[in-house]
């Protein structure tokens, strides 16, 4: 029972940043804009959250700042992709370089040349309830919130139509670029929150290797989840679970496998699952156009 | 040609963004660029360092560019680089033949293993429809942890360190390494200060291999029917399939070649510069920088060559503003990001191009 609780809570903890980010990516891609820049938005969000949480001693303001930080970067992506019809993959890659560079640059400017922010006190981190950080509950409820928005509201249906049939959407008298902009900005906001849920909840500071590839894993989860909110969250949970498994197995005394070898597990598992269960992908039809 | 001129505009734009960021942070941009310029071109050894720094970027850039031309996005250059480096470190430590056999043997083996690793992503896409962006991201981490595991294995691990054993002397591709420290070498170099300074860094033959690779990739893409078919797949998958091209095979081959190029970058890095491999906490970024190189070089082999040198110069000289001006060297990443951002929006600089370069064409 103890093992089970450990696995369960570790899974949730590791899945949370991915859930926020992947759901963000989902909102952007549902409206037809590829967002490969999630990594950069996450990094910048993690940094902004950490700075604001330290300066104000308020983790909730930090979380908000993380979202706003991510959203600021996503404005660039939105303007390029929607207004100037840019190559979305290239623009997203640019955001990744910008997000990483800007975070460490500002960190060095603010904190006397160090690339890490000072740690925040334990009681000033995002609080936890019933053994889980508040962000975990937030991420889970976000899944249902987005599911409801997309499938049960006019706004969501319009956003999706911008990603499926932009011309038809336009003919129906709706402004495609508005819905796409909304999608991209919310993806930036959520990716920023995702980064923040790492830097001010799971760990207590920002450092250059903090995100290291999680934005890309979120994209993988999004594709794995076939661009659907609940499946995407499940994919993130799957990934979180395999991470938890690594820690669980690694923590046992009678284990001889090295921790490095064990760390391969989540990635191998994901590949196997992708090969075995992928089937036909169902990307929004106007994605990237 | 138009693409190169547009890239050039984007680079100027990126450098401008860099100066604005510096200015806003209270650092004089002219001073920073001055430091960078002096730190890059005023001593022969700086040039040598830039060449060493640029070589892997050219190769990973070629790798990404080649895949791009076939319509594939090779984010996996990072992992293929690691596989090449790992193979070279293993072979270099455990084999000890005559250099004339040893070096080609290691190079071939490492390139082969990395190309299989790259080809795996192509195969997964062709056979199972797994998007190459996801599979290569996973393969990057698998390569990283695999390499870390092998570094720590008894017999290969250098005790009390985080690194592997050094490769044997016969595997080194550094130029005149022994001669430099021999008596005759020291005496000769003392009388040739310029060359002596140029030879101070461990200058190696990797750059020659990179130049050859650039030429061969150009040859494949532009002078062979194989390259033509690859480009056809890249431009229109359905049209290529309709024309009777085996699209699935072409994807796998393309990723194999891309993997081989990144593997060559990793292998030459170990054989010429680092001489061993270390535990990695995170990716070193050779593959990611390769994406930047490829994009700035407009995905063409010779464009990649130029942009590889450009990025290598930026990265090398960027370190110097940190010590000289206490300006964070990450401003370089911001510049690269801005350049790529401008490249994503061709319509931004097109009016400029029309104004200055297409006068003759309008008359036609």
Report on the architecture of this protein.
The complex is a heterodimer of chains A (289) and B (364). Chain A contains twelve helices and two strands, in the order ααααββαααααααα. Chain A has 289 residues and is mainly alpha-helical. Chain A has one domain (2-277): ABC transporter involved in vitamin B12 uptake, BtuC (Orthogonal Bundle), CATH 1.10.3470. Chain A has a two-stranded antiparallel ribbon. In chain A, a hairpin with a 2-residue loop joins strand 1 (128-129) and strand 2 (132-133). In chain A, helix 1 (2-30) runs antiparallel to helix 8 (176-202) and helix 2 (38-56) packs across helix 9 (214-224). Chain A is globular and about 65 Å long. Chain A starts with a helix and ends in a 12-residue tail after the last helix. The model of chain A has no long low-confidence stretch (mean pLDDT 90). Chain B is globular, with a radius of gyration of 22 Å. At the A-B interface, helix 4, helix 9 and helix 12 of A face helix 6, helix 14, helix 16 and helix 17 of B.
| Chains forming the largest contact | A-B, 50 and 50 residues
CA-to-CA gap between the ends of chain A?
Answer: 50 Å
CATH class group of chain B = Mainly Alpha
**What general form of chain A does the structure show?**
globular
Uncertain ranges of chain A: none
The helix/strand class of chain B is mainly alpha
Poorly predicted residue ranges of chain B: none
Q: What does the radius of gyration of chain B come to? A: 22 Å
Please give the count of helices of chain A: 12
Task: Give the % helix of chain A.
Answer: over 70%
Rg on CA atoms of chain A, Å: 19 Å
What kind of sheet is the major sheet of chain B?
Answer: none
């Amino acid at each position: 029972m103890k093992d089970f609780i450990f696995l369960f809570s570790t899974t949730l903890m590791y899945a949370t940043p991915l859930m926020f980010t992947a759901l963000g990516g989902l909102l952007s891609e549902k409206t037809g804009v590829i967002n490969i820049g999630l990594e950069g938005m996450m990094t910048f969000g993690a940094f902004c959250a950490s700075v604001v949480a330290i300066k104000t001693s308020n983790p909730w303001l930090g979380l908000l700042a993380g979202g706003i930080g991510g959203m600021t970067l996503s404005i660039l992506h939105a303007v390029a992709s929607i207004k100037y019809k840019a190559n979305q993959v290239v623009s997203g890659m640019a955001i990744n370089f910008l997000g990483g560079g800007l975070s460490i640059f500002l960190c060095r400017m603010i904190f006397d040349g160090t690339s890490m922010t000072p740690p925040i006190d334990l009681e000033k981190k995002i609080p936890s309830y019933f053994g889980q950080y508040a962000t975990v509950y937030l991420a889970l409820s976000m899944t249902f919130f987005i599911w409801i928005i997309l499938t049960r509201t006019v706004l969501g249906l319009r956003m999706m139509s911008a990603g499926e049939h932009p011309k038809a959407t336009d003919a129906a008298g709706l402004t495609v670029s508005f819905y796409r902009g909304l999608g991209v900005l919310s993806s930036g906001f959520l990716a920023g929150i995702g980064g923040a849920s790492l830097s001010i909840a799971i760990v207590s500071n920002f450092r250059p290797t903090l995100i290291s590839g999680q934005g890309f894993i979120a994209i993988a989860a999004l594709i794995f989840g076939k661009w659907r909110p609940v499946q995407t969250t499940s994919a993130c949970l799957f990934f979180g679970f395999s991470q938890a498994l690594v820690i669980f197995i690694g923590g046992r005394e009678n284990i001889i496998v090295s921790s490095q070898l064990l760390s391969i597990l989540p990635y191998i598992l994901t590949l196997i699952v992708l090969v075995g269960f992928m089937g036909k992908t169902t990307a929004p039809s106007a994605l990237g156009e | 040609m138009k693409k190169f001129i547009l890239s050039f505009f984007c680079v100027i734009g990126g450098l401008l963004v860099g100066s604005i960021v510096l200015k806003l942070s209270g650092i004089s941009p002219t001073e920073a660029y001055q430091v960078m310029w002096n730190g890059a071109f005023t001593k022969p050894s700086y040039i040598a360092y830039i060449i060493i720094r640029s070589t892997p970027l050219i190769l990973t850039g070629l790798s990404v560019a080649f895949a791009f031309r076939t319509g594939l996005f090779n984010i996996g250059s990072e992992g293929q680089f690691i596989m090449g480096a790992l193979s070279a470190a293993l072979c270099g430590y455990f084999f000890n033949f005559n250099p004339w056999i040893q070096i080609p043997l290691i190079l071939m083996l490492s390139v082969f293993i990395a190309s299989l690793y790259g080809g795996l992503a192509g195969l997964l896409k062709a056979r199972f429809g797994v998007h190459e962006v996801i599979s290569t991201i996973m393969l990057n981490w698998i390569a990283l942890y695999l390499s870390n595991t092998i570094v720590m294995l008894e017999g290969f691990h250098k005790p009390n360190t985080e690194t592997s054993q050094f490769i044997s002397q016969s595997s080194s591709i550094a130029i005149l390494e022994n001669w430099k420290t021999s008596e005759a070498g020291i005496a000769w170099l003392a009388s040739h200060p310029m060359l002596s300074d140029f030879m101070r860094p461990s200058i190696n033959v990797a750059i020659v291999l990179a130049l050859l690779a650039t030429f061969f990739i150009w040859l494949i893409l532009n002078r062979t029917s194989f390259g033509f078919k690859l480009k056809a797949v890249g431009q229109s998958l359905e049209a290529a399939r309709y024309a009777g091209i085996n699209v699935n095979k072409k994807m796998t081959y393309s990723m194999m070649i891309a993997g081989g190029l990144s593997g060559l970058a990793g292998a030459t890095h170990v054989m010429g510069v680092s001489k061993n491999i270390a535990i990695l906490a995170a990716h070193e970024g050779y593959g990611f920088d390769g994406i930047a190189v490829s994009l700035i070089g407009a995905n063409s082999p010779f464009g990649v060559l130029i942009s590889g040198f450009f990025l290598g110069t930026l990265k090398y000289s960027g370190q110097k503003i940190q010590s000289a001006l206490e300006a964070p060297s990450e401003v370089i990443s911001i510049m690269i990001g801005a350049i790529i951002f401008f490249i994503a929006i061709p319509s931004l600089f097109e009016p400029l191009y029309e104004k200055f370069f297409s006068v003759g064409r309008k008359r036609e």
